[in-house]
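Do me a favour: review this protein, sequence plus structure tokens, and tell me how the chain folds. Record follows.
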Amino acid sequence: MAQQINVADLDAPQLLDVKRQLDQELEHLTSSFGQLKQAQGKFNTCAENVKQLATSSGDTPILVPLTNSLYVPGRITDKNNVIVDVGTGYFVKKSTAEATTHYKGKVDFVTKNLESLQQVIQKKQENLNYLVTILQAKLAESKDSKSTS
């Protein structure tokens, strides 16, 4: 179990070290938040694409991605089934309803993680603000004590 330390008891160099650590943690958490937001957007897009496919007319021409930048023309002949990337290079054939449910589940999962991560980021930011206030007070105190000496 982590030992709690009152930051008001630390001296200025120690406070600077803690501030640096909090800054790094906040940067990492913010980066993770951005990545989760991107994943959420991609899953939403996938769900919308599956819905759009289900309502399209048969034998629809499309561009099939071979790589991130290379597409070839193709046709959708079976609009009731799709191939879903379930992760780590595995693909599964699912009905459009199952695929939509799969992607909506992914969106819900990522949304819950985003909400909890947002709370963690907010708490870290509050801790950092408190730490900066204490650090400023200590620096002002040491400056006053030097000027009176």
The radius of gyration is 26 Å.
